[in-house]
Design goal:
13% strand, alpha+beta, globular, 97 residues, 21% helix, 2 helices
Amino acid sequence: MPKELPGSGYSGRMIESPPAEVLAAWGLVPDALSMVRAPGGLIQTTFLIARRFVLQRMHEIFPASVLEDIDAVTAHLAQKGLDTPRPVRTQAGPWVT
C-alpha cells in the first residue's frame, strides 16, 4: 500500500470504485456501467468506465483550473484534425464535483 504523504491530503487509501454521487454528476448510473480501476498511476486515481470514459480523481496539488488548460490544448489539437480525448463537464457545468 502506498505511504501517506504528509501535508498532501493523500492518505494512501485505495479507492476501488468512484462514489455514486461523482458518477451521477455526469449522469452515469453505477449499476449500468462496467468499471475497472486503471493500473498504475502515481498521483491520480483513474477508472475506465464503459470503454468510453476515463474518470480521474485529481490530486489536490492540481487546481481545478488545470482542466481549463487541458481543454484548451485538446480543443486546439481537435481543430487541427488530431483525434484526442476531451474533458467532459458535469451536467451542472463544472469540471469537478
